[in-house]
Amino acid sequence: MAPSLSVVVNGIEFDNPFLLGSGPPGTNARVIMKSFELGWGGNVAKTISLDHSKVINTNPRYAKLRDPDDDKKVIGFENIELISDRPFDTWLEEFREIKKRWPNKVLVASIMEEYRKEAWVEIVERVQETGVDAFEMNLSCPHGLPERRMGAAMGSNPEIVGEVVGWVKSVSKIPVWAKMTPNVGDVTASPRAAVEAGVDGLAAINTILSVVGIDLDTLRPMPTVEGHSTPGGYSGMAARPIALRHVMEIAKALPNTPISGMGGIYSGGDAAQFVALGCHTVQVCTGAMLQGYKVIKQLTVELQAVLEKHGYDSLEQLRGAALPYFTTHSNLVERQREAKKDLALERDASTWQGEIDKETDSLTAN
Q: N or C: which end of the chain has fewer CB within 10 A?
């Protein structure tokens, strides 16, 4: 029998831990229901707000960072896309229809509002009546609407995070997750504030504020819109090491809080790394945009293969397995001394002789 991928988070049962992350993969009812039909464990709908009229997107809105040795391979992805530009009432209707047709699939509503209690209270009260299973508070979008103190402009301030989470928890009847920004100095400050305010779970990370590149034919930044651009959110496989570090820090600091991990997940093996760092679920956005919704079959098979390799029957056995092995640099030195390694041989004067590529390889683990 294949290992089980089912998981329960905040009392919500998921067939598997793979959710489509908030963004284009959950941009309307049609595509959300398609994802459920194909086997995704859940879908975090594209972020909504009460007033869609202020949301105007551009075309183009994406730019790719390509492998210099293989132009077809995309290693990084930048977007300057805003939250949903569809009417709030339309979303309410579609949430009801989705839950009517797919009552056993997990639908998470991603919500974002200005720094006003009445706005957050209203959006929570109206959306939860549609039957959605949970909320994900978007406190982390790195671009767009900062003048309205939305997204990362809010989530980078722990005091405000605690206050706003408190507003939402005061009226929410369903679980609430707070989505964290990586664009901060202290990785754990805002997550701690959210947990202290009563949040039920955390999601990490949102995209990294970036400039993906300059077109050397035109000398204009990308994505180029009428000759100009603006910094946007960076995602894709090249962002995964940063996401893994953030998840690790959060999981160690807040071990009793469920985490939905994301950032550069393209394969089941990628997902397994997030689970090994303490995640209960994982979210895929850019990976699905570049590979299609059908990638879910590959993701589940590959994740099960990791569990089988280690003799695990469930994700619970994998969860957090790598966390105990993070320590300080001084402790690493002490461990090597105890192992009777001759550290003197690794002094810079003897290691680096001028064949830097070969010498780099001699110090590399993989």
A: C
Whole-number Å distance between alpha carbons of 155 and 164: 9
Q: For residue 314, what are its two tokens? A: 């469930």
How confident is the model over 253-272, as pLDDT tens digits? Answer: 999 999 999 999 999 999 99
Q: List, in order of start, the domains of the chain with CATH numbers.
A: 7-324 (3.20.20.70), 329-363 (no CATH)
How far, in Å, CA of 247 to CA of 275, rounded? 10
The alpha carbon of 153 is separated from its chain's Cα centroid by a whole number of angstroms, namely 18
d(CA 22, CA 134): 13
Compute the distance between CA of residue 237 and CA of residue 242 in angstroms, rounded to an integer. 10
Burial class (CB in 10 A: 0-12, 13-18, 19+), 204: buried
Nearest Cα neighbor of 49 from 133, 131, 141 is: 141
pLDDT reported for residue 351: 81
Residues 6+ apart with CB under 8 A from 213: 63, 65, 221, 222
Phi, psi dihedrals of residue 327, rounded to the nearest 5°: -145, -165
Lowest mean pLDDT among 90-94, 180-184, 241-245, 356-360: 356-360
Separation between Cα atoms, residue 225 and residue 345, nearest integer Å? 54
pTM for the predicted model, two decimal places:
0.95
Active site residues: 141
Beta-bridge partners for 12: 9
Burial-class residue 70 by CB neighbours within 10 Å (0-12, 13-18, 19+).
exposed
Q: Which two tokens stand for residue 216?
A: 């050397």
Rounded to 5 degrees, what are φ and ψ at 187?
-60, -35
Reduce the DSSP state of residue 300 to 3 states and report it: helix
Provide the pLDDT for residue 345: 58
Arithmetic mean of pLDDT, 193-219 = 98
Residue 58 and residue 210 in contact, taking contact as beta carbons nearer than 8 Å: no
